Amino acid sequence: MTGQSFVPTKAFFTKGVGRHKNKLQSFELALRDAGIEKLNLVYVSSIYPPNCQIVSVDEGVSFLSPGQITFCVMARNATDEKNRLVGSAVGMAFPASKDHYGYISEHTSFGKDEKEIGDFAEDLASTMLATTLGIDFDPETGYDERREIYLMSGKIVDSTSMPCVTSGVPGLWTTTIAAVVFLP
User: Which range among 1-5, 64-68, 149-153, 169-173 shows the weakest confidence by mean pLDDT?
Assistant: First the structure.
């Protein structure tokens, strides 16, 4: 099969919160808060391409045009319950070799704070990468201990997350999003 292949060269993290009486409009407002509302977003799975560079939100958005079809990994969650803690997060694990791919995870939760949901998303991405790189670890140990093993292996250089958590407001839908947006 022949044809063009699109492998992103840049990516950026973003997040947003939206509130509105209609669920869909709260999602739109979350996209606006994240700076990506003018795009036609296509959700993709969890691979961070080799040799891809992370840029700031402002720099990333400057490469995009209204209506552009744009690929992203996104976590999205919503509630219409008063005071309910709602959250979304993306996590990423970076391999030591820029020529190897990394992993991105998405996670949503209720009742968790930013540290909890961010750590969980980061753990998911790191564990997926560790298994593909053949890093030996006990999956029953806590993430902090496993993270040290991952880093000491020399095969995983870093991991991070972008959590977005807020509380529901009476009479409104509250939507959280967290995303990694890919650029050509």
Answer: 1-5
